[in-house]
Each structure stands twice: as structure tokens, then as C-alpha cells.
Amino acid sequence: LSREGRLVRVLYRDEKRIDRVKQLFRYYEPDRFEELLHFVQWIEGDILDLPSLESVFKGITQVYHCAGLVSFSTSDFKKVMKVNRATPTSLTSLPPTHRRLKSRGTE
Questions:
Q1: Which residue among 73, 86, 101, 103 sits deepest, i.e. has the most Cβ atoms within 10 Å of its Cβ?
Q2: What's the pTM?
């Protein structure tokens, strides 16, 4: 999206994760990564706390749910289901102005 010059609002829980995303930009676009990062707005939050995200969704037209969780431990089953299945379903219960949902990487 940033390659198209579109503003992207990115939700993060841990500031350390921002550096990982910046490394990906640097890897895939070594000559333009700084330019492309100007199109990214970083917002601290938790996708599992939907009521707190109401203000985050203001003014946006699409949501890309990329917060998939992968684990092979049976003790993580409930958390995996919550992040990968319940959260996209919950996102569709947002007010009509926020419902155009595109889910990536969680199916």
C-alpha cells in the first residue's frame, strides 16, 4: 500500500516489533524504505481490545488483519483461536462505517 503512496495505519503492541517491520521495508525496498515509511502511521494498541480501537478506526476504509498467531503447542490453542478466528469476526461487528474488512494471513 505504501508503494502506491497510500497512508497506512499500523497497530502495534510492542515497540520492538516496529523495528522488525522497518527491517522488512529495508530488505524489500533498500533504495526507498525511508520514503515508504513516511506513509506509515504507528499506533500503539491491542487488536484483542476492540472497544479501545474505536478511535483507531476513524477515517479508515479498510482493515487488513495481519496479526495471526502460530503455535504448535496445545496449551496455546485458545489464544490461537482468539487471535486468528475470533478477532476477525469481532472486527466485522464494528459500526457500519468500519466494516469493510480484508483479512490477510489468518485463514
A1: 103
A2: 0.66
pLDDT tens digits, residue range 71-84?
889 998 888 877 77
Cα–Cα distances (Å) from 93 to 39, 75, 79, 89, in that order, read 28, 28, 20, 7
What does DSSP say about strands 8-12 and 40-44: parallel, antiparallel, or unpaired? Answer: parallel
The amino acid sitting at 52 is S
Outline where the chain has alpha helix (H): 16-28, 33-37, 77-81, 87-91
CA distance 6 to 25: 15
Reported as a single tens digit per residue, the pLDDT across 92-105 is 666 555 444 444 44
Instruction: From residue 6, give the alpha-carbon distance in Å to each of 29, 54, 101.
Output: 16, 21, 17
Q: Quick one: DSSP state of residue 17?
A: H
C-alpha cell at 33: 524504505
